[in-house]
Amino acid sequence: MRRQLTISPWLFAAPGLLVIGAFSLYPFLSTLINSFTDKRTLIPGKYVGLANFRELLHDEMFWIGLRNSTLYIVGVVPALVLLPLLLAMLVQRHIPGISFFRSAFYTPVVASIVVVGLIWVWMLDDRGLVNSLLETVGIGRIGFLSDQWLLLLSAMAVTVWKGLGYYMIIYLAALANVPRELHEAAAVDGAGAIRRFVTVTVPAVRSTMVLVGALSSVSAFKVFSEVYLMAGPTGGPAGEDTTLVMLVQRVGTGLSGRVGYASAISVVVFCVTVALMLLVLRADRKEDA
Description:
It is a multi-pass membrane protein. By secondary structure, the protein is an all-alpha fold. The chain is built from 13 helices and no strands.
């Protein structure tokens, strides 16, 4: 009986542990080990110590990727923290037809990122829908996909548009737990809509805002699909819109892919994402104190 009580929990957990080990733990350890080697796609590597990491310091494309990934966080995270909250407050109202808008706002979340990317490329192309409308009203064509910074901003807009519905659902769950009495008391005291939002709603959902900030920060720093679909495999004009994850894909794939060097970049991405999570949690603890 004692042996069964000891073994049974592990038998139930075994399938999940095997999946985690095969698809998470093993790839992570393999990447970490390869980062200290000169392994290539078809060539077993040998130990080279910190050579890959020293090379990163002198790799111009690495710094371009780090810059773009950091700018992505700066441009995307504030929008994904605030806009879904406002959207959740809007669709929280019990008015006729609001279910349709909830579904409409959530539709981009379930849509394939490839389909979404191709739709936006079609819209923002030099001969696409947006430029055709701009030319019709006399503004002229704008190089959304040919200008370095406009392309990066366009990819950010796609990320925000696709993520709004997902974080809106998270905020809706948080807003459902905010007592209506707090809003009513603030209204009785003469507080307007903006004042109630700042003094009642934001403090009540602050922990959710921290969660959304952490999730969106990690997701933004690891962005790949949006930029890849809109900028192409080269990463935009002269590769100036390349992100770190795109650099990992470019360097580490193919018959002559530098797996060891790509693994070193992946380790840097991992360390930065962990640091982002720790910073967000530390800031949250300071506010609680």
